[in-house]
Amino acid sequence: MSILWEFLKNPKRTGAIATSSRRLARMICSEIGVDSASVIVEYGAGTGVFTEEILRVKKPDACFFAIEHSPRLARNFRSKFPDTRLFEDSAENVAEMLAEVGQEQIDSIVCGLPWAAFDEPLQDSLLNATLSSLRPGGKFATFAYLQGLLLPAGKRFKKKLAQSFSTVEKSPTVWRNIPPAFVYRCTK
Ligand SMILES: C[S@@+](CC[C@H](N)C(=O)[O-])C[C@H]1O[C@@H](n2cnc3c(N)ncnc32)[C@H](O)[C@@H]1O
Q1: Which residues lie with the beta carbon below 6 Å from any ligand 1 atom?
Q2: Percent of residues, the chain, with pLDDT higher than 70
Q3: 29: phi then psi, degrees, rounded to nearest 5
């Protein structure tokens, strides 16, 4: 199961034609406390490149679950990571999933969602759900393609991040990703 196939079937939800690189996975999981967090959530796990990195660096006893909206990718994820909890759902419903695993707040969110492909109501609903589930001081990391900064939805998302979080930092560009991308690291 490839991201390209999923993109051809549902471009607006998938937002990528290639799986993210390991370099981008390392970048998105660094400096947001994944290694010390007690509760970690991944949005839009896709083929699991970020999941592998989270599993590599997280504390053995951390609570971690992933969310993936596409039934095909969710099926694939379950066979690849049989011991990792996955919700086949929209990240908009993260609060219900958190309650289901017996937790109240998230320390670190690693997000693979294609924000520049989303309309404004969906961006708002995902950001509101994120802010209500993240603990004060909690970290949220998401990636963006360089060319996405030129799209109206990409520009709008950048503005919304600045309005929603107390700090937003931009990582160096990962040039060896296809296409080149960078990470927004945000603190609530
Ligand atoms: C750009 S792909 C990233 C996949 C993977 N993390 C990577 O970097 O290769 C975006 C993923 O987000 C999923 N997705 C889109 N909207 C979603 C939503 N509202 N909730 C959860 N997952 C969603 C898509 O199905 C897709 O797998």
Answers
A1: 3, 13-16, 19-20, 43-47, 49-50, 67-70, 73, 90-92, 112-114
A2: 98
A3: -90, 0
Residue 148: CB atoms within 10 Å: 21
**How do residues 45-71 score in pLDDT, each as one tens digit?**
999 999 999 999 999 999 999 999 999
Q: What are the pLDDT digits (tens) for 117-169?
A: 899 999 999 999 999 999 999 999 999 999 888 899 999 999 999 999 999 99
How many distinct structural domains can be found in the chain?
Answer: 1
Q: Probe ligand 1: pick from 14, 81, 88, 115, max atoms within 8 Å of CB?
A: 14
Span from the CA of 167 to the centroid of ligand 1 (angstroms): 24
How many CB atoms lie under 10 A from the CB of residue 173?
A: 13
Query: Ligand 1 centre and the CA of 113: distance in Å?
Result: 5
Q: What is the CATH number of the domain that holds 140?
A: 3.40.50.150
Residue 57: which domain range? 3-187
